[in-house]
Amino acid sequence: MSHVHVLQHPLVSHHLCQLRDKRTRPSEFRSAVSRLAMLIGVRATDDLPTQPITIPTPVADAPCHELATDIGIVPVLRAGLGMVDPLLDLIPDASVWHLGLYRNEQTAEPVGYYDKLPKKGAPNVALILDPMLATGGSIDMVVRRLMRWGVEDIRVLSIIASQAGLDRVAKDFPHIKLFVAAVDPSLNEQAFIVPGLGDAGDRIFDTPQND
Ligand SMILES: O=P(O)(O)OC[C@H]1O[C@H](OP(=O)(O)OP(=O)(O)O)[C@H](O)[C@@H]1O
Ligand SMILES: O=c1cc[nH]c(=O)[nH]1
Ligand SMILES: [Mg+2]
């Protein structure tokens, strides 16, 4: 479990309160997702390689360090879209590759419906964005797809994970890194995270559940 990072930060705790609250309106929910994604994004990128460069300031040359790796942001549709803008704010030169998955309501198994990753040109680092990691089935499918594409450094950024889902992904893929804001104890009969926050995609996009 050495690659699982559970954020400990007062701002994370604070924004999670608003995110979990069923009274939070969609606009506020989106803002909370965005703030949490930014906090997770900073943590998930704190060991990216840099290279030294010299920059002329108006006063003198300054030794600086710029990013020295190619980064792909991979939001899992739909809910992962809510985390894209804060990550692009942090890493404006990243590419964004979309993968579309939904969970079959009866089986909770992921079903892929959108994948336009090119055959070549995998980034060195992929940041998978999905606010919810429940059974872990969706992240499992995405990680396998990115491994087939040729990504070596795969990092999962989720806001809430279930303990079982997190354990499953960490065990099946010991080489990837997982960054989460909270780990919840269980899943209910519909494989929803308990206490969780409900359906993240529906709360982000203000769509009724089961629609
Ligand atoms: O770990 P798992 O058990 O696979 O569940 C997590 C997945 O379920 C949700 O997506 P959903 O199917 O609701 O699609 P949506 O983002 O379009 O709402 C969530 O955003 C994850 O992708
Ligand atoms: O609790 C859950 C589980 C899957 N997807 C969600 O959005 N929430
Ligand atoms: Mg959903």
Automatic annotation (TrEMBL):
EC number in record: 2.4.2.9
GO terms under biological process: UMP salvage; uracil salvage
Signal peptide positions on this chain: none
InterPro entries assigned to the protein according to its UniProt record, in alphabetical order: PRTase-like, PRTase_dom, UPRT, UPRTase/APRTase
Recorded GO CC terms: cytoplasm
Key word Cytoplasm present: no
Superkingdom assignment: Bacteria
Gene3D superfamilies xref list: 3.40.50.2020
The protein's required cofactors: Mg(2+)
One GO molecular-function entry: GTP binding
Pathway involvement of the protein, from the record: Pyrimidine metabolism; UMP biosynthesis via salvage pathway; UMP from uracil: step 1/1
Keyword GTP-binding: yes
Transmembrane segments: none
Domain Phosphoribosyltransferase: 6-207
Catalysed conversion reaction: UMP + diphosphate = 5-phospho-alpha-D-ribose 1-diphosphate + uracil
NCBIfam families, A to Z: PRK00129.1, upp
Function: Catalyzes the conversion of uracil and 5-phospho-alpha-D-ribose 1-diphosphate (PRPP) to UMP and diphosphate.
Recorded family membership: Belongs to the UPRTase family.
PANTHER family, alphabetized: ADENINE PHOSPHORIBOSYLTRANSFERASE, URACIL PHOSPHORIBOSYLTRANSFERASE, CHLOROPLASTIC
Protein name from the UniProt record: Uracil phosphoribosyltransferase
Organism of origin: Rhodopirellula baltica (strain DSM 10527 / NCIMB 13988 / SH1)
Organism lineage: Bacteria, Pseudomonadati, Planctomycetota, Planctomycetia, Pirellulales
